[in-house]
Every structure is written in structure tokens, then in C-alpha cells.
Amino acid sequence: MHPKELRINQRLEERARAWESKEAGLLTGAQLWHAVRWCSSKSCRAAGLSDRVLTFVEQSYIEHKEDYNGTARLKDICRGCGVEYRSENLLICVQCSRERCGACASRGEINEYGDAICPCGGIMV
């Protein structure tokens, strides 16, 4: 397992624990966007997440679905080719938040689960 894959799992686990103990709220904005995209990736499924984290991300999505859907409709620029896309059509690095279209992301390294690797070493989902 790639070390940066483990980092996002650890961050989500810590945040889910804080939520359970009422020390932190649900995910919103970019954090929610990253978490939902990560949880639906092949790399995440291979790494496995605790039920606590899955419940936390699911509850965050349920409570902030409009925020998530609004983010999906935003437009952004692929950092590889410079073409504008809706965010839902770009891959995002779970480490540095760099966005790339599928064509640009697939030109780089691909991990054993089929997910693209960002130039920073993070997983693109």
C-alpha cells in the first residue's frame, strides 16, 4: 500500500473519531469532495476503511449533499492540458488537490489498483 493512501485513511479515521466524540463536525466543501471520491476509489477499497469512517463519510454526504453536488458542477482547469471541465469530470489528488482530466492523468503512473498517481505521489480519484 502506498504511504499517501494510508495518510488519507488515517486523517479520515482521526476525523471520524473526533466526530463521534462531538469534538468535530461533519465534512463539508473540499474535505467532503475528497472523502467521497476517495471512498469510491479502487485504492480505497483495497486499503479498507473502518465502519466508523464509512458511516462518517456517508453521514457527511447525506447532511451536505447539496454542497457536494454544487462542487461537482463547478468548473475547473485540468493542470495537465489547461482545458476547462466540470469538477465531476476531473480526477483530484487526495494529497495535493491537483486536478487532471482522465486523459492527462492516464499518461502518468498508474497504481496496481488502476488509479492514477499524481506527480506529488498522491492518488488521483
Shape category:
globular
What is the gyration radius calculated from CA atoms?
A: 14 Å
Strand order of the largest sheet: 1-2
Low-confidence stretches: none
How many E-type strands? Answer: 6
Termini gap:
16 Å
Order of helices and strands: HHHHHEEEEHEE
What summary fits the major beta sheet?
Answer: 2 strands, antiparallel
- In round numbers, the mean pLDDT is 90
Helix content: 40-55%
**How many discrete domains?**
1
Name the quaternary structure: single chain
Please indicate the percent range of residues in DSSP E strands (runs of 2 or more).
5-15%
Q: Supply the number of helical segments.
A: 6
Question: How does the helix and strand content classify structurally?
Answer: mainly alpha
Please give a quick description of this structure.
This protein is mainly α. It is built from six helices and six strands.
Question: What does the model show?
Answer:
The protein is mostly helical and 125 residues long. It contains six helices and six strands; from the N terminus they run H-H-H-H-H-E-E-E-E-H-E-E. A two-stranded antiparallel ribbon has the order 1-2. The chain has a two-stranded antiparallel sheet with strand order 3-4. Strands 5-6 form a two-stranded antiparallel ribbon. Strand 5 and strand 6 (123-124) form a beta hairpin.
